[in-house]
């Protein structure tokens, strides 16, 4: 029983530290704006992937089209959800990296750099989902 109490205590201490670091992270206004825009793009990716999944009539869909060779990847229509999952993974990864780098000297530069690339990745993921829409419909 003592083992479970120790695990619970460590989890609660970790969550308290995580909450304190997150509140320190979001004190900067530009970080709030970047994360809000990344999360809104991610939400649009989820909505569009769901609508594509719902409106496609067959179970098999085209997942990749190459100009030279034509269709080179066919799969289940559930694979549309990989793109929003990838976006969510990058958002969480950037938040973890920023929490680790929070107390560094050049935090603002690193935050602008990481969050700028996060937005760029999300924009490219949105373009890839849009190209899947164009290919399948």
Can you walk me through this structure?
The protein is mainly α. Helix content is 73%, strand content 10%. It has one domain. It has 4 helices and 2 strands, in the order H-H-E-E-H-H. The protein starts with a helix and ends with a helix.
User: Which structural class should the secondary elements be placed in?
Assistant: mainly alpha
Q: Please, how many helices?
A: 4
**Total count of domains:** 1
Give the biggest beta sheet: 2 strands, antiparallel
Q: How would you sum up the global shape?
A: extended
Tally of strands: 2
H/E element order: HHEEHH
Averaged pLDDT, please?
A: 91
Strand content: 5-15%
Which strands sit side by side, in order, in the main sheet? 1-2
In percent, how helical is the residue content? Answer: over 70%
The rounded distance between the terminal residues' Cα atoms is 58 Å
List keywords for this structure.
single chain, 137 residues, mainly alpha, two-stranded antiparallel ribbon, 4 helices, 73% helix, extended
Topology of helices and strands:
Elements: H1 2-25, H2 29-55, E1 60-66, E2 70-76, H3 82-100, H4 107-136
Antiparallel strand pairs: 1-2
Helix pairs in contact: 2-3, 2-4, 3-4
Compact summary:
With 137 residues, the chain is mainly alpha-helical. The chain has 4 helices and 2 strands; from the N terminus they run H-H-E-E-H-H. A two-stranded antiparallel ribbon has the order 1-2.
